[in-house]
What does this fold into?
Amino acid sequence: MARPHANTPETDASSPPAPLVAAEMKFEAALMELEQIVQNMESGQLSLEDSIAAYRRGSALLKHCQQQLSEAERKIQILEND
It folds into this structure.
């Protein structure tokens, strides 16, 4: 019988869950995660590889938050013009 890969969620309960795709997150959750990433990076405790991964994730979250804010601003402008 084949053994499952050691890093699969079924076999490694200590591994963190995979992060949500930024585009599927609510604004508040994305902003909270982004703030946590900034704190982690500013602490200087991350390895180079972890810093790069955190930067990539943070960039995706920032883009998502900016899009959400732009959409909210557009909706407000529509409401104000009615």
